Amino acid sequence: MNIATSAPADPAVLAARQREVAAALGAVLPPHCVLSALEDTRPYECDGLAAYRQLPMIVTLPESEAQVVAILNVCRQLKVPIVPRGAGTGLSGGAMPIVDGVVLSTARLNQIVRLDPYSRTAVVQPGVRNLAISDAAAQHALYYAPDPSSQIACTIGGNVAENSGGVHCLKYGLTVHNVLRVRMVTIDGDVLELGGEALDAPGLDLLAVFVGSEGMLGIVTEVTVKLIPKPATARVIMASFDQVGAGCNAVADLIAAGIIPAGLEMMDQTSSRMVEPFVKAGYDTEAAAILLCEADGTAEEVEEDIARMSAVLQQAGASAIAVSQSEAERMRFWSGRKNAFPAAGRISPDYYCMDGTIPRKRLAEVLAGIAAMEIKHGLRCANVFHAGDGNLHPLILFNANAPGEFDRAEAFGAEILALCVAVGGTITGEHGVGIEKIASMCVQFAPAELAAFHAVKRAFDPARLLNPDKAIPTLNRCAEFGKMRVTGGLMPFAHLPRF
Ligand SMILES: Cc1cc2nc3c(=O)[nH]c(=O)nc-3n(C[C@H](O)[C@H](O)[C@H](O)COP(=O)(O)OP(=O)(O)OC[C@H]3O[C@@H](n4cnc5c(N)ncnc54)[C@H](O)[C@@H]3O)c2cc1C
């Protein structure tokens, strides 16, 4: 599927524009940093949301912050939209290009600038992979806690832009809790530092505003992250449940008992059966659902937590409990969970991953609702998710080549998100809004709230050049989706962008 933008439709006009912008960029960047040939730009046409594709006009690969500044100056002067891109693993289309826009890839900004075991911090360029930070810190028995399942590939710049989470974020916090300082370039070409090396920084908390802003406020050029000591030991429980609802209630019971597991993840039977032949993690594929609950700390702490968690899980109706007996077995239990998305490809040509967050106590009800939607939309759904955070990841399985199936998958996904909002949750936990959930933003937020978001965007980027048309819907879009009241032919907030 190609998403049309408000670009020149005429190929000749587009080609002339490409020559003009490439020449201007070529004047400030070495030739190997500017790509405009079709075979060079094709790899950038989508991110992890591969159902939506758009070839970019030009791709830039800056090798320094000064080059990032130069790119932004050229684009601002020529009024060219810019789409920042890390590894392109995003699942909401945040890095999807714009037909007359420039992709700014951070692939070559991939240096660990400084790693300081005394202050337990690392200063890294935006294109450094998430796992590469922990790998580098391992020699000091330290690591970077947020661990998206894509951590082998995704970059810290992308993590900051999406406020990414992972299996261990329940105990150790999301990206926003683990980043101390972000250095970024504004659309005006100014270099700003948000936050600082200390635990708090003076002034408004612009770091919190920036983290999760999906490339719409500036380009990240350097990040200072916290490193924490690797726990002395860790063990994980795999608990089986005959009923999905009982497994969901066990999640709430664990937290209510005052236990914060290092990880608390759930997989339903569709997920465990899809993963097991692929990873051979040792999962109970007869169970309706399994919970993975990790304890970490000293050997004594872990032993005590495992005993407490096992008691709560048994009380909640677990039909079987297995505890990892070695580090290798613990890693195997997690590798099944971390490879769940790729494993979906074994049982379905395509999948559509949703990302809603709900109050933990509503998990059973929402999973029952999703089961009913499977019947209604005639599509299967595998549920594998960060249960402790109430962060659902329904994987809707479909075949893009079967007529109508993608539309049904999208309708199914939108209905799941609407249910998340209805039970007091939100339409995204960690994958961002991008282009994927832009209509659901109209469901979640009132016009006045959207107006406030537009005001923040305008304060950073008045000309709307940085990742425009992502994450915050224009009021016209909400009206088109039937989620905006138009009175007497007039919509509220006349000063806001319409398209
Ligand atoms: C198999 C799989 C598993 C996943 N598991 C998880 C998970 O457990 N938890 C989770 O949170 N996510 C997960 N994701 C989603 C994805 O990996 C994250 O959103 C990740 O943070 C994206 O990083 P990236 O480098 O690939 O960014 P990209 O996809 O390239 O970009 C993501 C967004 O960040 C912006 N951006 C990128 N770099 C910069 C920069 N330097 N400055 C400003 N903006 C920038 C882009 O414009 C875009 O809006 C998963 C994805 C896959 C494919």
TrEMBL record:
InterPro entries in the cross-refs: FAD-bd_oxidored_4_C, FAD-bd_PCMH, FAD-bd_PCMH-like_sf, FAD-bd_PCMH_sub1, FAD-bd_PCMH_sub2, FAD-linked_Oxase-like_C, FAD-linked_OxidoTrans_Type4, Oxid_FAD_bind_N
Pfam families named among the record's database cross-references: FAD-oxidase_C, FAD_binding_4
Protein name: Glycolate oxidase
GO MF annotation: an example: FAD binding
Record keywords, A-Z: FAD, Flavoprotein, Oxidoreductase
Domain named FAD-binding PCMH-type: residues: 52-230
Keyword Oxidoreductase: yes
Lineage: Bacteria, Pseudomonadati, Pseudomonadota, Betaproteobacteria, Burkholderiales
Originating organism: Rugamonas rubra
The keyword Transcription is annotated on this UniProt entry: no
PROSITE patterns: FAD_PCMH
Matching PANTHER family: GLYCOLATE OXIDASE SUBUNIT GLCD (PTHR42934:SF1)
Cofactor section: FAD
